[in-house]
Amino acid sequence: MAVPDVTVPDPTVPDPTVPDPTGAIGLVLARPARLLGVEPFFMEFIAGIEERLAERDLSVLLHVVADHDAEIAAYHRWASRGLVDAVVVVNLVEDDPRPAVLAELALPAVVVGDSTLPCVRTDHAGPIASALDHLLELGHRRIARVTGPSALAHTQARTAALVAGCAAAGVEPVIVEGDYSEESGEKLTTSLLTLADPPTAILYDNDVMAVSGLAAAVGLGVSVPSQLSLVAWDDSTLCRLASPALTTMSVDVHQFGVLVAESLLELVDGVPVAERWSPVARYVPRGTTAAV
Asked: Is the pTM of this model over 0.90?
Protein backbone atom coordinates (compact mmCIF):
# COMPACT_ATOMS: atom_id res chain seq x y z
CA MET A 1 0.00 0.00 0.00
CA ALA A 2 1.45 3.31 -1.07
CA VAL A 3 1.87 5.94 1.61
CA PRO A 4 0.52 9.31 0.41
CA ASP A 5 2.87 12.24 0.41
CA VAL A 6 2.15 14.63 3.25
CA THR A 7 3.52 18.14 3.15
CA VAL A 8 4.17 19.59 6.59
CA PRO A 9 4.04 23.43 6.60
CA ASP A 10 7.32 25.04 7.54
CA PRO A 11 6.52 27.31 10.53
CA THR A 12 9.35 29.63 9.52
CA VAL A 13 7.74 30.37 6.14
CA PRO A 14 4.80 32.86 6.17
CA ASP A 15 1.47 31.51 4.93
CA PRO A 16 0.70 33.50 1.74
CA THR A 17 -3.05 33.19 2.39
CA VAL A 18 -2.79 35.06 5.69
CA PRO A 19 -2.24 38.82 5.38
CA ASP A 20 0.70 40.25 7.24
CA PRO A 21 -0.18 42.52 10.16
CA THR A 22 0.17 46.20 9.30
CA GLY A 23 0.85 47.43 12.80
CA ALA A 24 -1.85 50.10 12.42
CA ILE A 25 -5.37 50.66 13.76
CA GLY A 26 -7.58 52.98 11.71
CA LEU A 27 -9.75 55.77 13.08
CA VAL A 28 -11.82 57.94 10.75
CA LEU A 29 -13.42 61.07 12.21
CA ALA A 30 -16.28 62.48 10.17
CA ARG A 31 -16.37 65.97 11.66
CA PRO A 32 -15.09 69.45 10.87
CA ALA A 33 -11.31 69.46 11.24
CA ARG A 34 -11.45 72.87 12.95
CA LEU A 35 -13.22 71.32 15.96
CA LEU A 36 -10.36 68.93 16.65
CA GLY A 37 -8.11 71.86 17.53
CA VAL A 38 -10.42 73.18 20.25
CA GLU A 39 -12.32 70.14 21.53
CA PRO A 40 -10.20 68.10 23.98
CA PHE A 41 -12.31 64.93 23.93
CA PHE A 42 -10.90 63.17 20.88
CA MET A 43 -7.30 64.08 21.62
CA GLU A 44 -7.60 62.51 25.10
CA PHE A 45 -9.50 59.54 23.66
CA ILE A 46 -6.83 58.89 21.00
CA ALA A 47 -4.06 59.31 23.59
CA GLY A 48 -5.65 56.55 25.66
CA ILE A 49 -5.85 54.24 22.65
CA GLU A 50 -2.27 54.92 21.59
CA GLU A 51 -0.87 54.44 25.10
CA ARG A 52 -2.18 50.87 25.24
CA LEU A 53 -1.44 50.02 21.61
CA ALA A 54 2.15 51.27 21.91
CA GLU A 55 2.84 48.41 24.31
CA ARG A 56 2.35 46.12 21.31
CA ASP A 57 4.11 48.36 18.75
CA LEU A 58 0.77 49.29 17.16
CA SER A 59 -0.13 52.83 16.12
CA VAL A 60 -3.25 54.79 15.18
CA LEU A 61 -3.85 55.85 11.59
CA LEU A 62 -6.09 58.93 11.91
CA HIS A 63 -8.09 60.25 8.97
CA VAL A 64 -10.44 63.27 9.18
CA VAL A 65 -13.22 63.49 6.59
CA ALA A 66 -16.33 65.57 5.94
CA ASP A 67 -19.08 62.93 6.23
CA HIS A 68 -19.92 59.24 6.49
CA ASP A 69 -19.79 58.71 2.72
CA ALA A 70 -16.15 59.80 2.76
CA GLU A 71 -15.56 57.63 5.82
CA ILE A 72 -16.96 54.56 4.06
CA ALA A 73 -14.80 55.32 1.02
CA ALA A 74 -11.77 55.34 3.33
CA TYR A 75 -12.72 51.90 4.67
CA HIS A 76 -12.88 50.55 1.12
CA ARG A 77 -9.39 51.92 0.37
CA TRP A 78 -7.93 50.59 3.61
CA ALA A 79 -9.44 47.14 3.10
CA SER A 80 -8.35 46.84 -0.54
CA ARG A 81 -4.77 47.90 0.27
CA GLY A 82 -4.48 46.09 3.60
CA LEU A 83 -3.46 49.29 5.36
CA VAL A 84 -4.90 48.55 8.83
CA ASP A 85 -5.46 45.51 11.04
CA ALA A 86 -8.72 46.88 12.47
CA VAL A 87 -10.69 50.11 12.83
CA VAL A 88 -12.49 52.05 15.55
CA VAL A 89 -15.98 53.34 14.70
CA VAL A 90 -17.23 56.36 16.63
CA ASN A 91 -20.33 58.57 16.69
CA LEU A 92 -23.00 56.05 15.71
CA VAL A 93 -26.16 57.43 14.11
CA GLU A 94 -29.63 55.95 13.68
CA ASP A 95 -29.66 53.24 10.96
CA ASP A 96 -25.88 53.60 10.71
CA PRO A 97 -24.59 51.94 7.51
CA ARG A 98 -20.98 51.61 8.65
CA PRO A 99 -21.14 48.35 10.67
CA ALA A 100 -22.70 46.51 7.71
CA VAL A 101 -20.08 47.92 5.32
CA LEU A 102 -17.25 46.83 7.59
CA ALA A 103 -18.72 43.34 7.92
CA GLU A 104 -18.99 43.09 4.12
CA LEU A 105 -15.38 44.22 3.74
CA ALA A 106 -14.29 41.74 6.43
CA LEU A 107 -12.49 44.65 8.09
CA PRO A 108 -12.32 43.97 11.85
CA ALA A 109 -13.86 46.77 13.90
CA VAL A 110 -14.56 47.88 17.44
CA VAL A 111 -17.58 50.16 17.73
CA VAL A 112 -17.90 52.87 20.36
CA GLY A 113 -21.57 52.43 21.25
CA ASP A 114 -24.17 49.67 21.06
CA SER A 115 -23.56 47.31 18.14
CA THR A 116 -23.69 43.70 17.02
CA LEU A 117 -19.97 44.11 16.25
CA PRO A 118 -17.44 44.09 19.11
CA CYS A 119 -18.13 47.29 21.01
CA VAL A 120 -17.56 49.41 24.10
CA ARG A 121 -20.90 50.60 25.42
CA THR A 122 -21.76 53.74 27.42
CA ASP A 123 -24.47 54.40 29.98
CA HIS A 124 -26.04 57.71 28.94
CA ALA A 125 -29.25 57.53 30.98
CA GLY A 126 -27.65 57.20 34.41
CA PRO A 127 -25.44 60.31 34.20
CA ILE A 128 -28.28 62.41 32.79
CA ALA A 129 -30.47 61.32 35.71
CA SER A 130 -27.65 62.21 38.13
CA ALA A 131 -27.18 65.68 36.63
CA LEU A 132 -30.92 66.32 36.65
CA ASP A 133 -31.27 65.16 40.26
CA HIS A 134 -28.60 67.62 41.37
CA LEU A 135 -30.28 70.49 39.52
CA LEU A 136 -33.70 69.62 40.92
CA GLU A 137 -32.26 69.42 44.44
CA LEU A 138 -30.95 72.98 43.95
CA GLY A 139 -34.50 74.05 43.18
CA HIS A 140 -34.22 74.46 39.39
CA ARG A 141 -37.40 73.96 37.41
CA ARG A 142 -36.60 75.89 34.21
CA ILE A 143 -33.97 73.61 32.76
CA ALA A 144 -32.45 73.70 29.26
CA ARG A 145 -30.00 71.49 27.41
CA VAL A 146 -27.66 72.40 24.56
CA THR A 147 -27.08 69.14 22.70
CA GLY A 148 -24.64 67.86 20.15
CA PRO A 149 -25.92 66.95 16.65
CA SER A 150 -29.33 65.28 17.01
CA ALA A 151 -28.49 62.53 14.50
CA LEU A 152 -25.95 61.01 16.91
CA ALA A 153 -27.18 57.98 18.84
CA HIS A 154 -25.68 59.17 22.12
CA THR A 155 -27.35 62.59 21.71
CA GLN A 156 -30.70 60.85 21.25
CA ALA A 157 -30.10 58.64 24.29
CA ARG A 158 -29.25 61.60 26.50
CA THR A 159 -32.23 63.58 25.25
CA ALA A 160 -34.61 60.68 25.88
CA ALA A 161 -33.23 60.28 29.41
CA LEU A 162 -33.60 64.00 30.16
CA VAL A 163 -37.15 64.16 28.81
CA ALA A 164 -38.15 61.11 30.85
CA GLY A 165 -36.54 62.43 34.03
CA CYS A 166 -38.11 65.87 33.65
CA ALA A 167 -41.53 64.36 32.97
CA ALA A 168 -41.29 62.36 36.19
CA ALA A 169 -40.45 65.59 38.04
CA GLY A 170 -43.22 67.59 36.36
CA VAL A 171 -40.72 69.74 34.49
CA GLU A 172 -40.70 70.55 30.77
CA PRO A 173 -37.13 71.07 29.53
CA VAL A 174 -36.07 73.29 26.65
CA ILE A 175 -33.76 71.41 24.26
CA VAL A 176 -31.75 73.11 21.51
CA GLU A 177 -29.30 71.52 19.08
CA GLY A 178 -25.67 72.58 18.81
CA ASP A 179 -22.65 71.20 16.97
CA TYR A 180 -20.06 71.11 19.81
CA SER A 181 -18.51 74.38 18.61
CA GLU A 182 -17.76 77.57 20.49
CA GLU A 183 -20.03 79.48 18.11
CA SER A 184 -23.06 77.30 18.74
CA GLY A 185 -22.55 77.41 22.50
CA GLU A 186 -22.51 81.21 22.48
CA LYS A 187 -25.39 81.63 20.04
CA LEU A 188 -27.71 79.09 21.67
CA THR A 189 -27.01 80.30 25.20
CA THR A 190 -27.82 83.86 24.12
CA SER A 191 -31.09 82.73 22.56
CA LEU A 192 -32.05 80.79 25.69
CA LEU A 193 -31.28 83.67 28.05
CA THR A 194 -33.31 86.15 26.01
CA LEU A 195 -36.50 84.06 26.22
CA ALA A 196 -39.46 85.51 28.12
CA ASP A 197 -38.90 82.84 30.79
CA PRO A 198 -35.20 82.02 30.52
CA PRO A 199 -33.84 78.85 32.09
CA THR A 200 -32.19 78.95 35.48
CA ALA A 201 -29.98 75.98 34.60
CA ILE A 202 -28.38 74.82 31.34
CA LEU A 203 -26.77 71.44 30.71
CA TYR A 204 -24.30 71.27 27.80
CA ASP A 205 -23.22 68.22 25.80
CA ASN A 206 -19.53 69.16 25.81
CA ASP A 207 -17.02 71.46 27.47
CA VAL A 208 -16.41 73.88 24.58
CA MET A 209 -20.08 74.88 24.29
CA ALA A 210 -20.30 75.25 28.06
CA VAL A 211 -17.29 77.56 28.29
CA SER A 212 -18.61 79.76 25.49
CA GLY A 213 -22.06 79.64 27.09
CA LEU A 214 -20.57 80.95 30.32
CA ALA A 215 -18.95 83.81 28.41
CA ALA A 216 -22.28 84.60 26.71
CA ALA A 217 -24.11 84.71 30.04
CA VAL A 218 -21.52 87.05 31.55
CA GLY A 219 -21.75 89.25 28.46
CA LEU A 220 -25.51 89.54 28.96
CA GLY A 221 -25.06 90.54 32.59
CA VAL A 222 -26.43 87.25 33.92
CA SER A 223 -24.67 86.28 37.14
CA VAL A 224 -23.33 82.72 37.32
CA PRO A 225 -24.19 80.89 39.54
CA SER A 226 -26.53 83.19 41.51
CA GLN A 227 -28.90 83.70 38.56
CA LEU A 228 -27.90 80.82 36.28
CA SER A 229 -26.37 77.39 36.86
CA LEU A 230 -24.30 75.72 34.14
CA VAL A 231 -23.19 72.09 33.81
CA ALA A 232 -20.67 70.93 31.18
CA TRP A 233 -20.07 67.41 29.85
CA ASP A 234 -16.60 65.83 29.44
CA ASP A 235 -14.47 67.50 32.08
CA SER A 236 -11.30 69.11 30.75
CA THR A 237 -8.72 71.79 31.49
CA LEU A 238 -11.07 74.26 29.78
CA CYS A 239 -13.67 73.65 32.49
CA ARG A 240 -11.20 73.94 35.36
CA LEU A 241 -9.62 77.16 34.06
CA ALA A 242 -12.94 78.93 33.40
CA SER A 243 -13.97 81.65 35.84
CA PRO A 244 -15.86 80.46 37.75
CA ALA A 245 -14.72 76.87 37.19
CA LEU A 246 -17.44 74.83 35.51
CA THR A 247 -19.46 72.14 37.22
CA THR A 248 -19.21 69.07 34.98
CA MET A 249 -20.32 65.57 34.25
CA SER A 250 -16.75 64.30 34.34
CA VAL A 251 -15.66 61.35 32.19
CA ASP A 252 -12.25 59.66 32.28
CA VAL A 253 -11.79 60.00 28.52
CA HIS A 254 -8.23 58.69 28.59
CA GLN A 255 -9.36 55.47 30.29
CA PHE A 256 -12.20 55.25 27.76
CA GLY A 257 -9.56 55.11 25.03
CA VAL A 258 -7.57 52.47 26.93
CA LEU A 259 -10.66 50.25 27.15
CA VAL A 260 -11.27 50.59 23.42
CA ALA A 261 -7.65 49.61 22.81
CA GLU A 262 -8.09 46.52 25.00
CA SER A 263 -10.96 45.40 22.77
CA LEU A 264 -8.89 46.12 19.66
CA LEU A 265 -6.01 43.98 20.92
CA GLU A 266 -8.35 41.06 21.58
CA LEU A 267 -9.82 41.51 18.12
CA VAL A 268 -6.49 41.47 16.26
CA ASP A 269 -5.30 38.54 18.40
CA GLY A 270 -8.31 36.53 17.25
CA VAL A 271 -9.62 35.87 20.76
CA PRO A 272 -13.14 36.61 22.04
CA VAL A 273 -13.66 40.32 22.67
CA ALA A 274 -14.87 40.95 26.22
CA GLU A 275 -17.92 43.08 26.91
CA ARG A 276 -16.79 46.50 28.08
CA TRP A 277 -18.45 49.71 29.28
CA SER A 278 -16.86 53.13 29.18
CA PRO A 279 -16.21 54.98 32.47
CA VAL A 280 -19.44 56.44 33.84
CA ALA A 281 -19.78 60.23 33.82
CA ARG A 282 -19.96 61.58 37.38
CA TYR A 283 -21.20 64.90 38.71
CA VAL A 284 -18.36 67.20 39.86
CA PRO A 285 -19.69 70.40 41.45
CA ARG A 286 -17.64 73.54 41.04
CA GLY A 287 -18.40 77.23 40.77
CA THR A 288 -21.20 77.35 38.20
CA THR A 289 -24.04 75.67 40.12
CA ALA A 290 -26.01 76.99 43.06
CA ALA A 291 -29.50 76.99 44.51
CA VAL A 292 -32.11 79.06 42.71
From this structure: no
Least confident of 38-42, 58-62, 124-128, 279-283: 38-42
Query: Residue 8: what pLDDT?
Result: 47
Pick the CATH number of 24-122+253-280 from 3.40.50.300, 3.40.50.2300, 3.50.30.50, 1.10.220.10: 3.40.50.2300
Residues 6+ apart with CB under 8 A from 99: 89, 109, 111, 115, 116, 117
Query: Cα separation of 89 and 100, whole Å?
Result: 12
Confidence of residue 39 (pLDDT cuts 50, 70, 90): confident
Helix (H) or strand (E) holding 36: helix 33-36
Q: What's the CA gap between 86 and 281, in Å, rounded?
A: 28
Q: Is the dihedral of CA 13, 14, 15, 16 positive or negative?
A: negative
Instruction: For the chain, give the percent of residues with pLDDT over 90.
Output: 85
- Evaluate if residue 148 carries a pLDDT over 50: yes
Q: How many CB atoms lie within 10 A of CB 81?
A: 9
**Domain 125-251 is found in CATH 3.30.300.10:** no
Distance between CA 22 and CA 78 in Å, rounded?
Answer: 11
Mean pLDDT of 1-5: 48
For β-strands 247-250 and 282-284, DSSP reports them as antiparallel
CA dist 116 → 103, 181, 251 (Å): 10, 31, 25
